[in-house]
């Protein structure tokens, strides 16, 4: 999935925002991410919070991902890795 990175108002987070409309099935995303080695922190139905290798990511059903890091390269790498783990979830 192609996305643009936007620095949030917080000093230590970036948003990965899809360039095209996206619809994520959060239930499927949680399953796929856990299979990919992510730890589930929270599942609110319309969004989930996962962690991998110390990086926290919040995935929303709109496809937006909030990545908790102050480093752009880390945020981009984290978002790319997350989307690479999604298959069925991207089908909505």
**Gyration radius, rounded:** 12 Å
Strand order of the largest sheet: 1-2-6-5-4-3
The poorly predicted ranges are: none
Strand content: 25-35%
Task: Give the integer mean of the pLDDT values.
Answer: 92
Molecular shape: globular
Helix and strand string, N-terminal first?
A: EEHEEEEH
User: Which class do the helix and strand fractions yield?
Assistant: alpha+beta
What's the total count of β strands? Answer: 6
Total count of helical runs of at least 4 residues? 2
Could you give the distance between the termini? 14 Å
* Main sheet attributes: strand count, strand direction, barrel closure: 6 strands, antiparallel
Q: State the helical fraction.
A: 25-40%
Give me a quick take on this structure.
The chain has 92 residues and is an alpha+beta fold.
Q: How are the SSEs ordered, and which strands pair?
A:
Elements: E1 3-7, E2 14-18, H1 26-35, E3 39-43, E4 47-52, E5 55-60, E6 65-67, H2 72-84
Annotation keywords:
about 25% helix, about 90 residues, alpha+beta, 2 helices, single chain
């Amino acid at each position: 999935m192609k996305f643009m990175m936007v620095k949030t108002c917080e000093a230590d987070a970036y948003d990965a925002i899809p360039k095209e409309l996206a619809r994520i099935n959060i239930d499927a995303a949680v399953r796929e991410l856990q299979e990919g080695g992510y730890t589930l922190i929270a599942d609110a139905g319309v969004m989930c919070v996962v962690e991998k290798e110390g990086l926290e990511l919040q995935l929303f059903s709109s496809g937006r991902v909030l990545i908790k890091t102050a480093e752009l390269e880390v945020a981009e790498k984290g978002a790319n890795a997350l989307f690479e783990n999604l298959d069925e979830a991207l089908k909505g």
